[in-house]
Specification:
The structure is a homotetramer of 342-residue chains.
Chain A (H helix, E strand, L loop, with lengths): L1 E4 L5 H13 L3 E6 L4 E6 L16 E5 L19 E2 L5 E2 L6 E5 L6 H14 L3 E3 L17 H14 L2 E5 L6 H7 L2 E4 L7 H8 L5 E4 L6 H13 L5 E5 L17 H8 L4 E3 L1 H5 L2 H14 L3 E5 L17 H21 L4
Parallel strand pairs in A: 7-8, 7-14, 8-9, 9-10, 10-11, 11-12, 12-13
Antiparallel strand pairs in A: 1-3, 1-4, 2-3, 5-6
Helix pairs in contact in A: 2-3, 5-6, 9-10
Chain lengths: 342, 342, 342, 342
């Protein structure tokens, strides 16, 4: 921690602050400058609580050097985490690139089974489908909830596909974890800390989406909750952030994918459907995610997007998804041979 | 709903779209223009599901005229809602201006009682205090949780003050509602729809904070969840939004207070502590809130901010709060006589 | 300046960095910590160019403590600047609260004179009116340009009002400065550094609007250009920033007014018309600006807003402005006696 | 244009609005709905000035369907524009992918010539280098200005490379256009409309960067200024937008590249250096730009980034750029064969 004093701070101010730091159990080091003095704080093993200093009138600024997360940081865990999703499927590190696809919402057994069979034929290992749907308006379709979970469970049993669904409440952890292979925390719940804590107590893998206006630090802080409670199987998912630009549903923050990979050992995937909100933009941004080093993508598809109960405008037709998958495969095989991964 | 066609749309495209609208149960009205045609949709009683149209290649844009909320809209409920908080205390309409104050987090019985007695002496009717604390890092103080609720309950019994605390999980509704007078939904949970639904099932008043990056429409959509489930006692609370500017903790969006009052009949209060994050800015923005027409303010105070376990930098000392209250009283009495409320 | 090293930095890394700092002419002070070392840089008289260090792999972060501006900072110029606008009119410090009003664009001699006479009757000292209009679309009205300047010059001669107009190009400085009393740099030109430099070479007062997405630091950096070139007569003007919220034209950042007053000695005024974009919100936010400590307001009015060639939706009718002025006067007189200015 | 009325609007209100529209020279078409009436406006050939309607109390909202630009729109000019940069080099349409590279600022003849020779050897056709540098602080290096132009002119004569430099003031158009092949309008000047107008009067190609907080519509509106004044040779350049996220210098808005290509016939390139601000992120985002369909990239390189006078942290070493170029070539050749371009 570094404490920057006002240029009007007196020698006595400096002495008082040094005393306070000593009382806090740390060692102060004064750095006198031409215009103002700064004081370094030495000896902390982690985040320093600065409450005893914050109101000192002689202090201009307090700069924290230690980050508010540790378990998820690559600093102390340099090796990539590989998250097991099923018996043979993993994500992260040098695992093959992961593809997850499926409808925004589970609408019926027929819709889900049709999608699952299609994915199985293509070799896509994970089916997504929302049972609990967080919707801005209570007048919109809210998902089949428990009924949707049952359908997901049936489909995975019948097809052998892995299944991921969003969880929206801590009290659902037990029931949801019993019916699906992977849990998803949505953007709106990224800082639902009770929910993070609960999914930290189980071992099922968790896909943690970035909040609409979450900084990378806050996102990693949320992942830290899950790890700290005992569950190391976290997969980050970039899904676009909210900015002033409304021509796309969100702003796809693709550049942070290689940055996040430097900051944390956790895998990171990309959701081109929510990041852009437009079917035409899903294909190019999904391919871009491969190029910038994502470990996978999660794509919305629907047997009949024109009649989807939610997010139809960003869901791919089966045929479009087939074409995307072919292009992804081609790019991945090309990349392995020739492109540097950051 | 208005459907704007591409300038390349053919007569046949127009006919097809009109047929689809008719099948949806509404009436289409074509509006031919010099460059392109638009089609109006008539006959809907509320929000129209546009999924059957979204993928039509001849359509350039679909514009919804009806809003995704109705119960909270002033359109169909022109009279101000007055929310009863206790036997004699109300907020909204022409109720006297409301002041809520207290520490960010409940830390101890002594801290809470000291604050409560101070507030009672000043005539402030509502004490705030967080038992469950949502924190970015799991390594930060998480609140006393159930222990904090007990302390709040003791204090309200002893002092007669009303007590408000944040609720973070649907499964806590029963226990929290049993110990406090008013529930608060924090910014990070504004779209925790299961939580909104649960607090909609009780009758206790709910303070609903605006999300960090929530539009007014989304905020009102969240309030709609509470009303639709049966609880009309919602108080909105503007607490600053996230923008590119980091000189303040958030950007206090004071201008939307008179705008929200035109859009909804619900009361709206302002939280100058979170909106600015700086003690020096709490006083001027709290006064500004009175001027723009807020129904109240919620302010963080602490007997010893320098040693607060959270948000010390934005918490007022008792003396500072006393001065703020005096200035607020003076401004309110002035305003009643002379200032037009929008 | 503080240099934070990676936790993997070696003793040799530390030595190398210290040598580089010494070569730069400064003194390094190592601050060894439990997890990582930091190095303070001492002896600089201002902003340090860190280019020789930026690429060192052992460095995690470089933190600048000195700000990129100096002349505009209150640090070294604690006393408020009072800017003279005309013979008797000043703004800043304890000068009376300033009101500027007038149409967005100068449209005709009649429109301008009508407005000027109305303002004179009310005692408003400064008339605003755009001769050069920056418009998003080239198909929109671009202002009367030189013809508009002539009209402003005539009106000020006939009425004795001071006149302010926007300047958009460095080559216009001479002609514009010859026709008006105060120059305005608009939000879109806040970082038009050639223009800032040119208006720095004259002595006429300059109103410098904040850019749509400018931080306070960037805004003060732009003011520094004007002062550094010799013109101390700068008045800052907050006019709203661009955020995700589109319910208002911009987001009025009222909370930064008291903050900016702490950071700089320059006066600051508020433009409620552009900050909100809605006539109904001009009144409440103009009053709020008084409460948070602005030195003045600049308001758009028009004799016939329904037929204004630009910004009609945010321009007040004369009658509305008369009412606003009465309320402003009342609030100002109240405030002088009773409200603390931050 | 569509006019949505309040649900309280009377039959008389509707009649009045229809009369006003008729007076404006257009034809009104009423669309009565269950809750409220809307009125379509027919017969306009372009953007409608709505000033005569904006203040009508019966109107809830006015929705413009026609865009404020026309010449740059693909609607009326479906074929890609191919911009000639030199005798053999073009950008846009099916032209080969364009690479531009060079230092942020021209610092010396030696630095520039060294860079030019390196680029020539690699076959890179265009050298960038700033002579006029817009800098936040007046205390930072401002560029060699006219001296820099001379150096650029010498280098292009000696090496045959095309040269691009930023222009910051309308009065520089003649001198700059005489010394370089391509002009660049920087992000801070995207709405410097006098500058846009002046570069519209010459025929040299213009690279128009997106403003820090410019919407796509505003950006295209700025391009429209150049085309309307007679210069069709405009190349758009996405360079990142300002958001709440500060981990990267800007937020690279890669997803809008395919979207912009649908909206306009103009070519669009990407600047990975400013978009990310971090050397490590330049490579992955430059490759991503190829994948999403950009027509080229503009990259900052420097013979000695550690001692660059500006933007060193985002400038590539020669060796790094060589590696980037090799990977770009490989990806482009791969893409031509196998990847669908949107």
């Amino acid at each position: 921690m570094l404490i920057v004093l006002h240029h009007t701070a007196t020698v006595k101010d400096v002495e008082n602050i040094k005393k306070t730091i000593t009382k806090m159990g740390f060692k102060p080091v004064a750095i006198p400058g031409a215009e103002r003095t700064a004081i370094g704080v030495i000896g902390n093993q982690g985040w320093v609580d600065d409450s005893a200093l914050r109101d000192n009138k002689a202090i201009q600024e307090i700069i924290h050097v230690t980050k508010p997360y540790k378990l998820v940081s690559r600093d102390f865990h340099p090796k990539d985490t590989v998250v097991p999703l099923g018996k043979k499927i993993t994500v992260g590190g040098t695992s093959p690139f992961l593809t997850i696809a499926g409808p925004c919402a589970v609408e019926s057994g027929e819709q889900l089974m049709k999608t699952a069979r299609f994915l199985k034929k293509l070799g896509v290992p994970v089916l997504r489908g929302g049972a609990y749907k967080p919707r801005t308006s209570p007048h919109s379709f809210q998902g089949l909830r428990e009924g949707g979970l049952e359908l997901l469970d049936e489909v995975r049993k019948e097809t052998g596909l892995l299944v991921v669904t969003e969880i929206v409440s801590p009290e659902h952890v037990e029931i949801v974890a019993g019916k699906v292979d992977i849990l998803q925390i949505g953007a709106r719940n990224m800082q639902n800390f009770d929910l993070l804590t609960e999914v930290g107590k189980i071992k099922k893998p968790v896909i943690l989406k970035r909040g609409l206006s979450a900084t990378i630090e806050e996102w990693l802080g949320s992942a830290e909750y899950i790890l700290l409670n005992g569950n190391p199987n976290v997969v980050l998912c970039e899904r676009g952030i909210r900015t002033f630009e409304t021509a796309t549903r969100n702003t796809a923050d693709l550049a942070i994918i290689p940055l996040v990979r430097k900051m944390t050992h956790l895998p990171i995937i990309f959701d081109p459907s929510h990041a852009t909100g437009k079917r035409d933009l899903v294909l190019p941004t999904a391919l871009a995610a491969i190029v910038v080093g994502a470990h996978g993508v999660m794509v919305e598809i629907h047997p009949d997007p024109e009649h989807a109960l939610s997010d139809g405008a960003q869901s791919l037709h089966f045929k479009e998804f087939g074409s995307l998958l072919a292009q992804m495969k081609s790019l991945i095989s090309f990349k392995k041979q020739k492109l540097t991964v950051l």
